[in-house]
């Protein structure tokens, strides 16, 4: 399988994230990169498809903000990475916001997604990596886009969940075909759902930890399915058999949309040893999942999302890709 990666994605190097009342070392760190690159072998660098495919799904003001947020942070006299601390409650009227802190809260929904000096460049080249892999898939192959930071929590005008640009949504729309998007990261792909809801010719299905117990809490509940998206939340502790049964359901529903192309938001944080997640898939299970998905017979773009057990991450990713 052709694999795409851009070295500029490494420069995003958040030190900490804030949750449960304290700063913690960032789970989404560049040790993930070494683990995955060592396991997948040769990668190709992407060409630059420019801003147009990003602008097709993201808000102009948000993209502008991402590019200058860290500069504005420094200009305000701060050090380190930019993090929000105040957020507008849903439904607040739009305001012209000047202060960096006000803008950070306006364009983010959590405190785990710091913006550093290289975050924009890394996220930009992550999106370009996904678009390059989409190009390979247009030729009828499967392809893997090693995107980092991840993307599926980012919405049209917000970052969150370590995500800044929604690589899967960018590609689903750029494909310009009937597309099935399958999200098998441990966490619900709230940004992808928000961005793809109601889009003609696109279906989105997500298997994820029940938001009653797990991040991102406010999206992905079972009763939140309808139209062109399907949510299949699963309890903590879910192992292969129950996971596979839900996957069969999701694939059947996606197939009803007669897709020409499949985009997978792939997280290896469903692994039993993942430090921030609570499912129980083991390394060989990733090959079984891949074979299940490959059996639907669509050209497939695999976009990397989460996965934090660095000792096993590369193996889990390579096992998944090998299953195709
Ligand atoms: C990103 B992706 C850790 C706090 C939650 C946010 C999780 C973002 C996951 N207990 N941190 O979907 O893997
Ligand atoms: Zn995840």
TrEMBL record:
Keywords: Hydrolase, Metal-binding, Zinc. It comes from the Bacteria. The keyword Zinc applies. Residues 46-321 form the Histone deacetylase domain. Its cofactor is Zn(2+). The keyword Hydrolase applies. Belongs to the histone deacetylase family. This is Histone deacetylase family protein. It comes from Sphingomonas arvum.
């Amino acid at each position: 399988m052709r694999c795409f990666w851009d070295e500029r994605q490494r420069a995003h190097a958040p030190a900490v994230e804030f949750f449960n009342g304290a700063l913690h070392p960032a789970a989404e760190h560049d040790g993930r990169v070494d683990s995955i690159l060592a396991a997948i072998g040769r990668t190709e660098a992407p060409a630059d498809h420019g801003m147009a495919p990003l602008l097709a799904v993201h808000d102009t003001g948000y993209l502008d903000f991402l590019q200058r947020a860290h500069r504005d942070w420094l200009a305000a006299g701060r050090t380190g990475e930019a993090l929000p601390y105040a957020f507008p409650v849903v439904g607040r009227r739009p305001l012209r916001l000047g202060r960096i802190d006000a803008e950070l809260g306006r364009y983010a929904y959590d405190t785990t997604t710091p913006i550093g000096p290289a975050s924009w460049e890394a996220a930009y080249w992550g999106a370009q990596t996904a678009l390059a892999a989409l190009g390979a898939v247009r030729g009828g192959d499967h392809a893997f886009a090693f995107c980092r930071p991840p993307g599926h929590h980012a919405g049209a005008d917000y970052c969150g969940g370590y995500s800044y640009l929604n690589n899967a949504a960018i590609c689903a729309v750029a494909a310009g075909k009937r597309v099935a998007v399958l999200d098998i990261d441990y966490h619900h792909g709230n940004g992808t759902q928000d961005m793809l809801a109601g889009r003609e010719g696109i279906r989105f299905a997500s298997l994820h930890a029940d938001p009653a117990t797990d991040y991102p809490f406010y999206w992905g509940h079972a009763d939140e399915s309808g139209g062109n998206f399907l949510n299949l939340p699963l309890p903590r502790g879910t192992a292969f058999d129950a996971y596979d049964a839900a996957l069969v359901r999701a694939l059947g529903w996606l197939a009803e949309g007669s897709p020409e192309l499949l985009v997978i938001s792939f997280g290896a944080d469903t692994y039993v040893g993942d430090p921030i997640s609570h499912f129980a898939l083991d390394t060989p299970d990733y090959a079984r999942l891949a074979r299940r998905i490959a059996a639907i017979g669509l050209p497939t773009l695999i976009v990397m999302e989460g996965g934090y057990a660095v000792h096993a991450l590369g193996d889990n990713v390579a096992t998944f890709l090998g299953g195709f």
